[in-house]
Design a protein that fits this description.
Blueprint (H helix, E strand, L loop, with lengths): L1 E5 L4 H6 L8 E6 L13 E4 L5 H11 L3 E4 L5 H6 L1 H21 L4 E7 L22 H20 L3 E6 L1 E3 L11 H11 L2 E4 L9 E3 H12 L10 E3 L7 H11 L4 E4 L3 H8 L8 H7 L7 H16 L1
Parallel strand pairs: 1-2, 1-4, 2-3, 4-5, 5-6, 6-10, 7-9, 8-11
Length: 310
C-alpha cells in the first residue's frame, strides 16, 4: 500500500503520518522545502508543484499510489488576496488531480473539505444537508472539488471521500489562515505572553482539536465502502465562542495578556461559518464521535507548547 499525501509539509499531513498503517509506504509532496512538524521516520518527501501538470503526471507514472490524501490548498486569507492563484491551486489543480487518480487507477481519494463551504445567514444548529453557498472564495473552491469528487464517483467509480472539517486547533496551525485564531491564542499566549483576537467575544464557530481531526481522517479513509451512504460528510466536536476561548487560555496562562481587537473583515468571514453542525451520517456510517473537549484540549495544547518552549 502506497499513500500519496499532497500538502505533505503541512500541519495535518505531518501529524497524520504517525497514525497511518506502519506497513504503508508514505509519500509526502509539497511545494515547501520541508515538513513543518515531525513526521514518521520512514516517509519520503518530494518537493513539487501541484499545478505542474507534467510533473504530476510523471509522479503518478513513477510512484503508482494506491491511495491519495489531498491536503494541498491555498488558505482562506491568501485565496482572497490572490484569487487567480487560489482558484488555480484549489480548484483547477484539484480537478487535474482527480483526473490523474482516475487514469492511474488510484483505489481511494480522501479530501478534507471545510466548514467554509457554507455562508450567509445560517440556522443553528446547521442541518446535515444544508445548501452550500459560501461567502469566501476559499469555500467556493472547496465546494467545487466536492462536486467534482461526487461526479467522479457516480460517473466513473472513483472511491472519493470528503469530510468538512471545522476550525482545527493545533500547535502547528498555519499563519495564513483566518481560521487559525483559536490555535494562535494558545501558541502566542505561551510563546509571547500576549494575543489579540481578531474576532469578537461573541463569535462562535464549530471547532475541533487536531487529535480528533486526525481520527476523523483515518476513520473515513478506512471506513467500509459498503457502509457509506454519501461522498461528503460533516463532523462536529466543540463550538466555543471567542470569550470562552479567551478564558480557557487565561485560566492556564494567568500572566498572559489576552484580549480582543476585532478586525471587521476577519470577524465577518468567521461569523459566516456555522456554530454547530449536525453530523448524524458520520456517526452512523463510520462511527465518528469526538473525544476532546475544550478543557481537555486546552490542557494538552498548553502542556505540549510549554514542553517545546522549555
Amino acid at each position: 500500500m502506497k499513500i500519496l499525501i499532497t500538502g505533505g509539509a503541512g500541519n495535518l499531513a505531518c501529524q497524520l503520518t504517525h497514525l497511518l498503517p506502519p506497513e504503508a509506504e508514505l509519500l509526502l509532496m509539497d511545494i515547501a522545502e520541508k515538513p513543518v512538524a515531525p513526521v514518521r521516520s520512514d516517509i519520503r518527501f518530494i518537493q513539487g508543484d501541484l499545478t505542474d501538470t507534467t510533473a504530476m503526471e510523471s509522479l503518478f507514472q513513477l510512484e503508482k499510489p494506491d491511495q491519495v490524501i489531498h491536503l494541498a490548498s491555498l488558505l482562506s486569507g491568501s485565496t482572497e488576496e490572490n484569487r487567480p492563484l487560489g482558484w488555480k491551486i484549489n480548484a483547477t489543480a484539484g480537478f487535474e488531480l482527480l483526473d490523474l487518480c482516475l487514469r492511474h487507477q488510484v483505489k481511494r481519494v480522501l479530501f478534507p473539505s471545510s466548514l467554509a463551504v457554507w455562508g450567509g445567514s445560517l440556522p443553528d444548529p446547521l442541518p446535515e444537508n444544508h445548501e452550500t453557498w459560501p461567502d469566501g472564495l476559499y469555500g467556493v473552491t472547496k465546494v467545487a472539488v466536492e462536486r467534482l469528487g461526487h461526479y467522479y464517483f457516480r460517473k466513473h467509480g472513483l472511491d472519493f471521500r470528503a469530510v468538512r472539517l471545522p476550525i482545527i486547533i493545533s500547535p502547528y496551525a498555519p499563519q495564513g489562515a483566518a481560521s487559525a485564531y483559536a490555535s494562535h491564542a494558545f501558541v502566542q499566549g505561551v510563546q509571547e505572553g500576549r494575543f489579540r483576537f481578531k474576532v469578537t467575544p461573541e463569535t462562535r464557530v464549530s471547532m475541533m482539536y487536531v487529535k480528533d481531526a486526525l481520527r476523523v481522517l483515518t476513520g473515513l479513509l478506512n471506513a467500509d465502502p459498503a457502509r457509506l451512504s454519501r461522498r461528503v460528510y460533516n463532523v462536529q466536536a466543540i463550538s466555543p465562542n471567542g470569550q470562552e476561548l479567551a478564558e480557557a487560555v487565561r485560566l492556564r496562562l494567568p500572566n498572559a495578556d489576552i484580549d480582543f481587537d476585532p478586525d471587521p473583515e476577519v470577524a465577518a468571514l468567521i461569523d459566516s461559518w456555522p456554530g454547530v453542525i449536525k453530523d448524524a451520517a458520520s456517526t452512523l456510517d463510520w462511527d465518528w464521535t469526538p473525544k476532546w473537549t475544550l478543557d481537555r484540549l486546552a490542557d494538552d495544547m498548553v502542556e505540549s507548547l510549554q514542553h517545546v518552549k522549555n
